């Protein structure tokens, strides 16, 4: 669990990268030896992803589930999630299972 993790102040991201924000994260990781599954939820405040851009005025929320096949390759074999800008805002879904567009 991370609470109020500042990407710049922590030294995790270089200040001149243009990427910044404050992250809350809670998640879990499990494995059966063949597959690893990660589930979690994150909240990002004041996210900035472009050096000349401005930080977001509202938080961004991310809920996700990802499955990794440990036997084949170190890539995500399936992932699902949703992204929303507030608890009331419409969500954006993503699903890489079977490469289906949403």
Give the N-to-C terminal Cα separation. 30 Å
| Spatial ordering of strands, largest sheet | 1-2-3-4-5-6
Structural class: mainly beta
Number of domains: 1
Largest sheet: 6 strands, antiparallel
Helix content: under 10%
Instruction: Give the ordered list of helices and strands.
Output: EEEEEE
Share in β-strands: over 45%
Oligomer: single chain
Number of strands: 6
Q: Mind telling me the C-alpha Rg?
A: 16 Å
Overall geometric form = elongated
Layout of helices and strands:
Elements: E1 2-6, E2 20-31, E3 35-48, E4 60-69, E5 76-84, E6 92-95
Antiparallel strand pairs: 1-2, 2-3, 3-4, 4-5, 5-6
Question: Mind explaining what this structure looks like?
Answer:
By secondary structure, the chain is mostly beta strands. The chain starts with a strand and ends in a 7-residue tail after the last strand. The model has no long low-confidence stretch (mean pLDDT 80). A 6-stranded antiparallel beta sheet has the order 1-2-3-4-5-6, with no helix packed on it. The chain is built from no helices and 6 strands. The chain has strands at 2-6, 20-31, 35-48, 60-69, 76-84, 92-95. It has one domain (2-99).
Please supply descriptive tags for the structure shown above:
6-stranded antiparallel sheet; 0% helix; 6 strands; 102 residues; mainly beta
């Amino acid at each position: 669990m991370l609470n109020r993790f500042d990407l710049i102040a922590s030294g995790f991201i270089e200040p001149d990268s243009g990427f910044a924000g404050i992250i809350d994260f809670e998640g879990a990781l499990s494995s059966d030896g063949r597959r690893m599954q990660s589930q979690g939820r994150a909240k990002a405040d004041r996210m900035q992803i472009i050096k000349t851009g401005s930080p977001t005025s509202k938080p961004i929320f991310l809920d996700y589930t990802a499955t990794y096949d440990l036997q084949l390759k170190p890539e995500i074999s399936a992932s699902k999630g949703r992204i929303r800008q507030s608890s009331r805002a419409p969500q954006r879904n993503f699903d890489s299972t079977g490469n289906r567009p949403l």
